[in-house]
TrEMBL record:
Compartment list: Endomembrane system; Membrane
NCBIfam families in the cross-refs: ATPase-Plipid (TIGR01652), ATPase_P-type (TIGR01494)
Compositional bias annotation for Basic residues: 1105-1125
Gene (name only): Atp8b4
Binding-site positions, Mg(2+): D392, T394, D815, D819
Keyword Metal-binding: yes
Cofactor: Mg(2+)
Organism encoding this protein: Heterocephalus glaber
The organism's taxonomic lineage, starting at the top: Eukaryota, Metazoa, Chordata, Craniata, Vertebrata
GO MF entries: ATP binding; ATP hydrolysis activity; flippase activity; magnesium ion binding; phospholipid transporter activity
Protein name per the record: Phospholipid-transporting ATPase
E.C. no: 7.6.2.1
UniProt entry tagged with the keyword Magnesium: yes
Taxonomic superkingdom: Eukaryota
GO cellular component, one term: plasma membrane
Catalysed reaction equations from the record: ATP + H2O + phospholipidSide 1 = ADP + phosphate + phospholipidSide 2
Length: 1192
């Protein structure tokens, strides 16, 4: 990380193939990646620098230096250096362990094998040894090692197919193609080894959708664009092999450029502690100044008499210099207000909480044998303060599996069953699926639960047959057979795979295709259709059509697409069926299913020939070609006959709906950030119940310029607040505090539920301009926010925007490499060990296998961690203020001499032995309510979001409590001992007896206090609390014994004092009085508060006690399901351009050509199909702002 630096002035990149010596002079980065923070050399200085950024560590180092000065030190130096070294060592070991695993994961990736062309031979080489300019061979299903220029492939015309799920979250395949001059190289190693082309291209950047370059070879130049490049992180699919030339390697690849930097994360409590330590130091400085002034006055007025009394022969002291020395002496004595054991205890508690997460069996996923893992131990309490969750969609909310769930054919729904009361029921796993075992070519993974569909097929229902015939013909799927003769489909989108597989299992099997024909097997009979035209899908048309001639000579147009589009093009005869199908589509959409309408049209032969002739003319037009073709498509795609509709389930992860509902009840806002298209993202939003029909409005921001985006945001805010709200209709380019004030006012005034949907190019305009405040304001006022078509960097920018301007604790969760950037940016990063590799897990702070475990991580472990840490800190500050400030009161009675009121051993052992274990037990094991109650009552999570349990106000309350206890601890024994005599008539007001009485009172008071603070008692709490008291007395009697004094007379001067003091009844009465006076006000206050103003936690604990004997059966939270929807459930993960690709035949391997026919001529100019596909693919991706992406 610290050794590999990019050239800062790189403006363009020049790469020569197969020439490492030439490329090395540019000092390009190699293919080694570094996600680790340290190396062996840099670990110690960098880690120490990071640790001493913590104010407390620097404070203790300063105290240690003071203690080494004998003139001012009244405590020995080892009382500070031992715990300081201990805490620094523990933290360093933990950081080293975390970084070791980063090194391990880096090595795992860097040591992957790849075939590299070296010295004319293909050799296995580690990824980290791959250099810029090398030629690499990739095979099917392999990860791409670096950013490559595609040279050749096994597919015709240099095509290859890639999956980019780790880059943009999309699982549909994308096509890349090589230049024709390089595709001729094929797999000829000798020709590839002689290839010496030079590429001049853009410098490394993070723009996934853009590449500009030129290849110079054989005295000619060829332009390069994004369609010629395969990026690192992609997976080669449906392509046997391909060769590529490395353009960008390692940290220069676009994947790593989008990954963001590893940040040093600290919790809000850590940041608050830094502030409090500074405040405490200021408070101690004030006390030190008061005592130093007192010492100067005392030395000036009284000190001379004591020198004579003590036979001091020194010259008279300067009272001002004496006060100066006393100031530093008291700084040392009073430093125990913030002992270093506080930080040791915090690390131990966090470690314990991390193990609880790792050991939680309820977060263990048996399907993958994957437990939950806390990959860091420093952020646990932050899990209890989350306000915003940013989630990926594909693989995080969804399983990335499309299933044909239901369909509507000729007004009848298939896929539902009815009970005796004719009520529709959800199909469950207990229901018997249709048996497809009798069909050898049926897909084994396909399941359908409605037997009536198969009966309709067997009975020969013509509408059902036509429905599945359409599904088997209208698609872009490619088929091939494996070595066993099994039919395998190569699908461009998972939706098409689900539809074609459904048709296959229902007896209409897509077998093969050529550019002119489609062959299907209809209920056992092979039928070949002539493909006359392919009317391709795009995001504007939102439909796809094919025109085919069946063996009987009939010409038919089959079409599928969005219901809102197809319904406008139906023949009036379909009006009745339209109403019925619309109701069915509403039900499907209400269940969160992805819908497509299905229709066909019978065409007249003469009419088709005339239309086809016009289409050929339009395809050859030089100007307005696309508009003319689109118009002809519109003309023929009318007067359609409706067949029905399909409903596909994009399977959600188990428990997603319940988790989102529960987190919403906990006032956690969930934003979905996905690279998928808008329809798909919105459909999943409805499936998850993040979007509902009951919402007042769903704002869609899709502007293509800054002005359009600003206007759409203003209109949305106008809908929220009405036209009378002049405050929010003005320009909002204001300062941050004013912006936050506006947002908070809006959140209080907005009534109703709203949602915001924004796409990538609009988001890019908003993030780079002054309207990002408008966007943030509107988004924060909405219940749900969905950002679609966003790049990995834009995901991080959205997280950073909320994190910075809302000052809220954020959590990002994802499962792919495209989520790494936002995972690193958020306060908490969660990785899901899903199907997209382990990049997200390796960059995360916490990981598990299913999204549903997020609910338990936050509502149970997060809330408990925050609750325990806050109770721990409140008690610790109280205890140490009570312990330390006794020295301040004692100073007024010891001539401000910096003498300690306790003996030195008690000061050393108080925080380490006497009170350490009880507070650790409370910090690790305490819980206010059970885990089940935490899950059932998400509202209990809100105190953490509002930071109620530990803040500056709570600190001052603990401080006041400690000051009061210190007053009681000092002045009650002082008043009782004043002119008092023991039972034997001897004086008991000596310094040693006074010290023992106060020390004993202190230990008992703080032990009783922690007993009152403990909500959940375990055997460990009992042993630690009462055992600590027993340990105190055991050590006390030992240190005051004759034996220890005989061995160390200078170290243990309090010989026999305990036997003398603690045998006096009056001493025990003083201890009892001190304890009661210290504790009773707290008991009274808490009793009144619980009775008059109980918190939700108090109410649940009362209910728990009342239900101990008879606990009712817990009812599951009902899953919200709608029976109908007013919206379209259309979603189709398809990419434009595949129709031309099929009809051109460029993606098909050479076979025996079928007989030619005049009607079988491809509709598009075959010389331009690559350019058209490139243009259309780029159009779908260039919605991301190319020149306007904002760097973090």
């Amino acid at each position: 990380m610290f050794l590999c630096k990019k050239k800062p002035c790189e403006v363009e990149r020049i790469v020569k193939a197969n020439d490492r010596e030439y490329n090395e002079k540019f000092q390009y980065a190699d293919n080694r990646i570094h996600t680790s923070k340290y190396s062996i050399i840099t670990f110690l200085p960098i880690n120490l620098f990071e640790q001493f950024q913590r104010v407390a560590n620097a404070y203790f180092l300063f105290l240690l230096i003071l203690q080494l000065i004998p003139e001012i030190s009244s405590l020995t130096w080892f009382t500070t250096i031992v715990p300081l070294v201990l805490v620094i060592t523990m933290t360093a070991v933990k950081d080293a362990t975390d970084d070791y695993f980063r090194h391990k994961s880096d090595n795992q990736v860097n040591n992957r094998q790849s075939e590299v062309l070296i010295d004319g031979k293909l050799q296995n080489e580690k990824w980290m040894n791959v250099k810029v300019g090398d030629i690499i061979k990739l095979e099917n299903n392999q990860f791409v090692a670096a950013d490559l220029l595609l040279l050749s492939s096994s597919e015709p015309h240099g095509l290859c197919y890639i999956e980019t799920a780790e880059l943009d979250g999309e699982t549909n395949l994308k096509v890349r193609h090589a230049l024709s001059v390089t595709s001729e190289l094929g797999a000829d190693i000798s020709r590839l080894a002689r290839f010496d082309g030079t590429v001049v291209c853009e410098a490394p950047n993070n723009k996934l959708d853009k590449f500009v370059g030129v290849l110079s070879w054989k005295d000619s130049k060829h332009s390069l664009n994004n369609q010629k490049i395969i990026l690192r992180g992609c997976i080669l699919r449906n392509t046997s092999w391909c060769f590529g030339m490395v353009i960008f390697a390692g940290p220069d690849t676009k994947l790593i450029q989008n990954s963001g930097k590893t940040k040093f994360k600290r919790t809000s409590i850590d940041r608050l502690m830094n502030t409090l330590v500074l405040w405490i130091f200021g408070f101690l400085a004030c006390l030190g100044i008061i005592l130093a002034i007192g010492n100067s006055i005392w030395e000036n007025q009284v000190g001379g008499q004591f020198r004579t009394f003590l036979f001091w022969n020194e010259e008279e002291k300067d009272s001002i210099f004496s006060g100066f020395l006393t100031f530093w002496s008291y700084i040392i004595i009073l430093n125990t207000v913030v002992p270093i054991s506080l930080y040791v205890s915090m690390e131990v508690i966090r470690l314990g909480h991390s193990y609880f997460i790792n050991w939680d069996r309820k977060m263990y996923y048996s399907g993958k044998a994957a437990p939950a893992e806390a990959r860091t131990t420093t952020l646990n309490e932050e899990l209890g303060q989350i306000e915003y969750v940013f989630s990926d969609k594909t693989g995080t909310l969804t399983q990335n599996i499309m299933t044909f769930k239901k369909c509507s054919i000729n007004g009848r729904i298939y896929g539902e069953v009815c009970d005796d009361t004719v009520q529709k029921k959800e199909i469950t796993k207990e229901k018997e699926p249709v048996d497809f075992s009798g069909k050898p070519q049926a897909a084994r993974s396909f399941q359908f639960f409605d037997q009536s569909l198969m009966e309709s097929i067997k009975l020969g229902d013509p509408n059902v047959h036509e429905f599945f015939r359409l599904l088997a013909l209208c698609h872009t799927v490619m088929s091939e057979e494996d070595s066993t003769g099994k039919l395998i489909y190569q699908v461009q989108s998972p939706d098409e795979g689900a539809l074609v597989t459904a048709a296959r299992n229902c007896g209409f099997i897509f077998k093969s295709r050529t550019p002119e024909t489609i062959t299907i097997e209809e209920l056992g009979t092979l039928v070949t259709y002539q493909l006359l035209a392919f009317l391709d899908f795009n995001n504007i048309r939102k439909r796809m059509s094919v025109i085919v001639r069946n063996p009987a000579g009939q010409i038919k147009l089959y079409s599928k697409g969005a219901d809102t589009i197809l319904f406008e093009r139906l023949h009036p005869s379909s009006e009745d069926l339209l109403c019925l199908t619309s109701d069915h589509l509403g039900e499907f959409a209400g269940e969160g299913l992805r819908t497509l309408a299905i229709a066909y049209r019978d065409l007249d032969d003469k009419y088709f020939k005339e239309w086809h002739k016009m289409l050929e003319t339009a395809s050859a037009a030089m100007h307005g070609r696309d508009d003319q073709i689109s118009g002809l498509y519109e003309e023929i795609e009318r007067d359609l006959t409706l067949l029905g509709a399909t409903a596909i389930e994009d399977k959600l992860q188990e428990g997603v709906i319940e988790t989102i509902a529960s987190l919403s009840l906990a006032s956690i806002k969930i934003w979905v950030l996905t690279g998928d298209k808008q329809e798909t993202a919105v459909n999943i939003g409805y499936a998850c119940n993040m979007l509902t029909e009951d919402m007042n409005d769903v704002f869609v921001i899709a502007g293509n310029t800054v002005g359009e985006v600003r206007e759409e945001l203003r209109k949305a805010k106008g809908s929220l607040f009405g036209q009378n709200n002049s405050v929010l209709n003005g320009h909002v380019a204001c300062e941050k505090p004013q912006q936050l004030e506006l947002v908070s006012v809006g959140e209080d005034t907005v009534t109703g539920d709203y949602a915001l949907v924004i796409n990538g190019h609009s988001l890019a305009h908003a993030l780079e301009s002054d309207i990002k405040n408008d966007l943030l304001e509107l988004a924060c006022l909405c219940k749900t926010v969905i950002c679609c078509r966003v790049t990995p960097l834009q995901k991080a920018q959205v997280v950073e925007l909320v994190r910075k301007h809302k000052n809220a604790v954020t959590l990002a969760i994802g499962d792919g490499a495209n989520d790494v950037s936002m995972i690193k940016t958020a306060h908490i990063g969660v990785g899901i060990s899903g199907q997209e590799g382990l990049q997200a897990v390796l960059a995360s702070d916490y990981s598990f296998a299913q999204f549903k475990y997020l609910q338990r991580l936050l509502l149970v472990h997060g809330r408990w961690s925050y609750f325990r840490m806050c109770k721990f800190l409140c008690y610790f500050f109280y205890k140490n203020f009570a312990f330390t400030l006794v020295h301040f009161w004692f100073a007024f009675f010891c001539g401000f001499s910096a003498q300690t009121v306790y003996d030195q051993w008690f000061i050393t052992l108080f925080n380490i032995v006497y009170t350490s274990l009880p507070v650790l037990a409370m910090g690790i094991f305490d819980q206010d309510v059970s885990d089940q109650n935490s899950m059932d009552c998400p509202q209990l999570y809100e105190p953490g979001q509002l930071n109620l349990l530990f803040n500056k106000r709570k600190f001052f309350i603990c401080m006041a409590h400690g000051i009061y206890t210190s007053l009681a601890l000092f002045f009650i024994p002082y008043g009782a001992f004043y002119n008092a005599a023991g039972e034997d008539g001897q004086h008991v007001a000596d310094y040693q007896s006074f010290a023992v009485t106060m020390a004993t009172s202190l230990v008992i008071v703080v032990s009783v206090q922690i007993a009152l603070d403990t909500s959940y008692w375990t055997i460990i709490n009992h042993v630690f609390i009462w055992g600590s008291i027993a340990t105190y007395f055991s050590i006390l009697f030992t240190m005051h014994s004759n034996g220890i004094f005989g061995m160390f007379p200078n170290q243990f001067p309090f010989i026999g004092n305990v036997r003398h003091s603690l045998t006096q009844k009056c001493i025990w009465l003083v201890i009892l009085l001190t304890t009661v006076a210290s504790v009773m006000p707290v008991v009274a206050f808490r009793f009144l508060k619980m009775d008059l103003h109980p918190t939700p936690t108090d109410q649940i604990r009362r209910w728990q006690k009342a239900q101990k004997k008879a606990r009712p059966v817990r009812r599951r939270r009902p899953q919200a399901r709608r029976s109908s929807s007013r919206r379209s459930g259309y979603a189709f993960a398809h990419q434009e351009g595949y129709g031309e690709l099929i009809t051109s035949g460029k993606n098909m391997r050479a076979k025996n050509p079928p007989p030619a026919s005049g009607l079988e001529k491809p509709l598009c100019n075959s010389t331009s199909w690559l350019e058209n596909l490139c243009k259309k693919t780029t159009d779908t991706l260039s919605s991301f702002s190319q020149e306007k992406t904002v760097k973090l």
